[in-house]
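Example for tutorial group B:
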C-alpha cells in the first residue's frame, strides 16, 4: 500500500530489500491473471449449475405433462385433490392435475321444484310399470296435469338412471367403450350362498332433492351384503359398496347391468384380481337381475314412499333400519318363509 519503504519492510521482516522488490514486481505482473482465472472458474461453475437446473426443470415438465395425460380421474375426483389453503395457489394446483380452473369453481345448479316433483312421479310409475318408455311416461305425466314434452322426460329418466325394460334394436351389437362380459346366469342352477352376487343402482327421492342407492346382494339368499348412498352417479360410492361386501366373503360370479360404474376398469379389476367371474345383463333387460329389481320394489313401497325422507340424514337412518329389518326379520315366501340372514348364514332355518 506504499506506506513503508523497501528497506523498512526488509528490516522488519528480516528479508533483503532486493527480494522484496522482486516479489512486488511478481505480484504486480501476476495478480490480474490470478483474479481473472478465479472469475472464469466461478463463471464456468455458475454456467454448469444453470445448465443442470434447466435440465432438471425440463425433466420435471415432461414428467408433469405425462402425469396429466395419464391421470385417469373424473372432474369430481380432481376437484377433491385441490386444497384451498395450501402453499400452492389454486391456479397452480389446477394446472398440476390438469383441471381447468372454471371446472374447479363450477357448481351445478340443482333441479327446479317442478322437476323434482316430476322425478318423484316418474320413479313411482317406473316402480309399478318398468316397461314404460319415454312416450308412455310423457303421456302419464301429462294426464297428471303437467305440461311436458318427451325431451324433458327423457332427460329426467336418464338423470335418475331409469331405462324401460324391453329388448331394443341392435341389442347384440358390440360397443367399443368397455370390455364385454357375457350373461352367465341363464339356465344356471343357483343353489347356495356366495355362488352369485348381484348389484344395481336406484333413485331415492327426498322432499327437496334425490339420492342414488347402490346395493350388493347374495342372489340365493336375497341377503343384502352392503349398500351405500350418494348424491351423484360417480364411481366412488359403488367401489366403497363393493369393498364392504368383499370383506364378508367372495362370490363365484358377480352380476350387474352395463352401467358405466360397473363396466369401469376400476370396478372390474377388483373382481378380476380375485378370480371372480363377471356376468352382465343385456342392455334393456333389467329382469336379468330380477331379485335386485324385486328388492327395489320392496325398499320403495315398504320404506321410501311411506317415510318420504326430508333430508339426506333421514334417508341414511331410514334405510339402515330397513335393511336390518329386510335381512334379519322380514320373511320371504321364496325362501320358505325364512329371512335372508337365516338362509345366508344357514342358522335357524324353518321348514314349512
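The residue assignment follows.
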Amino acid at each position: 500500500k506504499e506506506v513503508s519503504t523497501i528497506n523498512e519492510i526488509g528490516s522488519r521482516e528480516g528479508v533483503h530489500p532486493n527480494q522484496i522488490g522482486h516479489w512486488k514486481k511478481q505480484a504486480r505482473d501476476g495478480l490480474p491473471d490470478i483474479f481473472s482465472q478465479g472469475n472464469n472458474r466461478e463463471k464456468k461453475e455458475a454456467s454448469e449449475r444453470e445448465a443442470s437446473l434447466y435440465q432438471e426443470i425440463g425433466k420435471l415438465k415432461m414428467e408433469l405433462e405425462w402425469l396429466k395425460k395419464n391421470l385417469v380421474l373424473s372432474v369430481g375426483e380432481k376437484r377433491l385433490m385441490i386444497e384451498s389453503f395450501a402453499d400452492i395457489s389454486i391456479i397452480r394446483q389446477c394446472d398440476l392435475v390438469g383441471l381447468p380452473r372454471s371446472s374447479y369453481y363450477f357448481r351445478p345448479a340443482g333441479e327446479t321444484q317442478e322437476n323434482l316433483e316430476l322425478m318423484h312421479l316418474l320413479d313411482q310409475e317406473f316402480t309399478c310399470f318398468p316397461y314404460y318408455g319415454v312416450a308412455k311416461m310423457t303421456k302419464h305425466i301429462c294426464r297428471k296435469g303437467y305440461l311436458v314434452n318427451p325431451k324433458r322426460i327423457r332427460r329426467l329418466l336418464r338423470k335418475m338412471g331409469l331405462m324401460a325394460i324391453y329388448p331394443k334394436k341392435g341389442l347384440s351389437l358390440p360397443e367399443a367403450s368397455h370390455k364385454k362380459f357375457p350373461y352367465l346366469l341363464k339356465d344356471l342352477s343357483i343353489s347356495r350362498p356366495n355362488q352369485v352376487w348381484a348389484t344395481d343402482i336406484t333413485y331415492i327421492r327426498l322432499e327437496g332433492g334425490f339420492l342414488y342407492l347402490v346395493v350388493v346382494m347374495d342372489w340365493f339368499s336375497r341377503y343384502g351384503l352392503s349398500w351405500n348412498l350418494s348424491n351423484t352417479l360417480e364411481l366412488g360410492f359403488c367401489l366403497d359398496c363393493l369393498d364392504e361386501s368383499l370383506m364378508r366373503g367372495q362370490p363365484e360370479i358377480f352380476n350387474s347391468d352395463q352401467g358405466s360404474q360397473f363396466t369401469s376398469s376400476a370396478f372390474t379389476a377388483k373382481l378380476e384380481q380375485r378370480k371372480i367371474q363377471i356376468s352382465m345383463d343385456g342392455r334393456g333387460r333389467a329382469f336379468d337381475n330380477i331379485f335386485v329389481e324385486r328388492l327395489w320394489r320392496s325398499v320403495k313401497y315398504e320404506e321410501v314412499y311411506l317415510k318420504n325422507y326430508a333430508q339426506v340424514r333421514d334417508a341414511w337412518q331410514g334405510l339402515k333400519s330397513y335393511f336390518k329389518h329386510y335381512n334379519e326379520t322380514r320373511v320371504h315366501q321364496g325362501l320358505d318363509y325364512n329371512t335372508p340372514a337365516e338362509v345366508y348364514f344357514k342358522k335357524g332355518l324353518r321348514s314349512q
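The chain has 14 helices and five strands. Compare this with the pattern of hydrophobic and polar residues in the output above.
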